[in-house]
Structures are given as structure tokens and as C-alpha cells.
Design brief:
Elements: H1 2-7, H2 12-22, H3 30-66, E1 74-81, H4 89-99, H5 111-123, H6 126-130, E2 133-141
Parallel strand pairs: 1-2
Length: 142
């Protein structure tokens, strides 16, 4: 129930209100609620690790199949990004008004440096965690 309600954006108080209205129980304590969240996190992380490991094994096999002499632990990352272009300042201002409350500054420096920093953060643990190394990075705009 906690998992389903969290998918809907409902927290413990909402669950307790729902349980009360449906007359199905007294609700759940904060300790039980956080234990449930920890179990959901553990399960989600385990599934994520399995999917990533399977993807890495598939990529290694593809590299080996395409070039038997290639180092199958050297990967190329393709970073894809959308560039939003505005034909006039009014269109941009309309967009900005709708999004400004959701946009916060979380990077200091240039936009180009932001991409570099993100790539380093995302892939820096790959050798230790998955025994692969991202040796090339390419960028594709959509």
C-alpha cells in the first residue's frame, strides 16, 4: 500500500486519511511507514543494479562481437540533449513564466562545463562498480 500510494504522491498522512475513510485500519505509524519506504528503496535499488549489470554485459558482448581485438571494458557514452530555440523574446518569456518556479540554480560555471561535470559525476564510479570505463563521449542534439 505504501508503494502504491507513494507512486500517487501520497505520504503517510494521506495513507492514514485514506485508511480512516475506507475504515480498513487505524493507519500506520511513522516508524512502520519509514521501514516500508526503506524496503521499497532496497528493492528498487536491487532491480536497478540487475538491469544495469545486464546492460553492461550486453554492451561488452556487442563490443567483442564487432571487434574481437577491442577492449570490451572501454565504453563510449552518447549524451543526448534537447536544445530549445525560441523565435522571439515573447515566446521565451511565456515559457519562463511557466517554469521559473521549478527551475533553480544547481551549477556554477558555464553550460558547457555543466555537461562535463555531469558526465564525470555519472560515469566516475563505473570502473569500481562495474569494471568498465567510459573512454569516449559524444554528444547528440535532438
Amino acid at each position: 500500500m505504501v508503494f502504491a500510494m507513494r507512486l500517487l504522491g501520497v505520504g503517510r498522512e494521506g495513507i492514514n486519511i485514506f485508511c480512516s475513510m475506507m475504515d480498513i485500519c487505524q493507519g500506520i505509524s511513522i516508524g512502520i511507514y519509514y521501514s516500508c519506504l526503506e524496503n521499497v528503496y532496497t528493492a528498487a535499488f536491487a532491480v536497478y543494479d540487475l538491469i544495469i549489470s545486464k546492460g553492461i554485459d550486453e554492451e561488452k558482448n556487442l563490443i567483442s562481437a564487432s571487434d574481437p581485438n577491442a577492449n570490451s571494458t572501454n565504453f563510449t557514452a552518447v549524451i543526448s540533449g534537447k536544445i530549445k530555440k525560441y523565435s522571439d523574446i515573447e515566446t521565451y518569456n511565456d515559457w519562463y513564466e511557466d517554469h521559473k518556479e521549478f527551475c533553480t540554480i544547481n551549477h556554477k560555471g558555464s553550460a558547457g562545463k555543466m555537461e562535463v561535470d555531469a558526465i564525470i559525476a555519472m560515469f566516475s564510479r563505473s570502473v569500481q562498480k562495474h569494471q568498465v570505463k567510459y573512454v569516449k563521449y559524444t554528444h547528440r542534439h535532438n
